[in-house]
Specification:
The complex is a heterodimer. Helix content of chain A is 32%, strand content 34%. Chain A has 2 helices and 4 strands. Chain A has helices at 15-26, 42-53; strands at 4-8, 32-37, 56-63, 66-72. Chain A has a 4-stranded mixed beta sheet, with helices on one face. The radius of gyration of chain A is 11 Å and the shape is globular. The model of chain A has no long low-confidence stretch (mean pLDDT 92). Chain B has helices at residues 3-25, 46-61, 89-95, 115-126, 132-141, 150-155, 174-182; strands at residues 34-41, 65-70, 145-149, 170-172, 184-189. In chain B, strands 4-3-2-1-5 form a 5-stranded parallel beta sheet, with helices on both faces. Chain B is elongated and about 85 Å long. The termini of chain B are far apart. At the A-B interface, helix 1 and helix 2 of A face helix 2 of B.
Chain lengths: 76, 190
């Protein structure tokens, strides 16, 4: 179970990523956060962001324009 | 533990302390480039400034340090319309051509006397895209550093006292911006 869940439906770029980053700061290493977003750019953006920040993108699913990502925090 | 190994450990500890000191004293420019984005915001157009703040907040979200240097028309973004300061007639005349704040910026194209900017603002609210005001608040929260160009402030008849309450907002010159830009990874002029 993820420690935190963020509902970012209705928010567009760059808010989903910015809010996700803010949430990650509050978490400890290994903690997970689930994000639900409908920004069409979110899947590619969250993948790029995880690559840059080294946080792990555990899963990413899209259905009917709604994207769900599970991100695990790397070392702070 | 034998005396020799204790001596060796002491010698090694001494060496580590020396190396740590040497590393911390090394100037930033001599080390690897800092993970920093430097933005020179010259434009006072809403669309351009919006792009600048989207990049700034996203970079901060990716763990980058961000500095934004506002000069000439860009200074309009930082104005607070509710703050009144005493000015000479010339300063008043000059500053009257600079937009009064983030929500008073025109579009770079198709502004149509403010009609275009108003329409874009409306569409942004409808589509729930973050406004410049929201991005400014986020930038402050994320530690994005804002600086105003001292020289252009004077040229445009503006004063620091009429700017928004943004944490750490100060005036500086081109040298300060360049020092940060030269030692960072990424610089953009907007």
């Amino acid at each position: 179970m993820p420690q935190r869940s963020l509902n970012l439906r209705g928010k567009s770029c760059p808010i989903p990523i910015v809010y996700l980053a803010r949430e990650m700061k509050l978490l400890g290493r290994g903690d997970e956060v689930e994000i639900v977003a409908d920004d069409p750019a979110f899947p590619v953006d969250v993948t790029a962001w995880c690559g840059q920040t080294r946080h792990a993108l555990v899963s990413l699913q899209s259905q009917d324009g709604v994207h769900r990502a599970l991100v695990r925090k790397a070392a702070p | 533990m034998s005396a020799t190994s204790e001596q060796r450990i002491a010698a090694l500890e001494q060496k580590v302390a020396e190396l740590t000191l040497a590393l911390t004293e090394r100037p930033e420019s001599a080390t690897a480039q800092a993970n920093r984005l430097s933005l020179m915001v010259f434009s006072g157009s809403m669309d351009r400034v919006l792009a600048a703040f989207i990049l700034a907040t996203t970079a901060a979200a990716a763990g980058m340090e961000v500095q934004m240097f506002f000069t000439f028309w860009g200074l309009g973004v930082l104005r607070d319309r509710n703050k009144k300061v005493a000015k000479s007639a010339v300063e008043r005349a000059l500053s009257s051509i600079v937009p009064k704040g983030a929500d008073a910026l025109p579009l770079s194209q198709m502004n149509l006397g403010g009609l275009g900017a108003g329409l874009l603002r409306q569409v942004m609210i409808q589509r729930r895209v973050a406004t410049l005001q929201e991005l400014l608040t986020l930038a402050a929260e994320m530690g994005v550093v804002l600086n105003a160009c001292e020289m252009s402030l004077g040229v445009m008849g503006l004063k620091l006292e009429e700017f928004i309450d943004y944490p750490g907002l100060t005036c500086c010159g081109a040298a300060t911006f360049l020092a940060g830009a030269a030692s960072g990874k990424l610089t953009m002029f907007i």
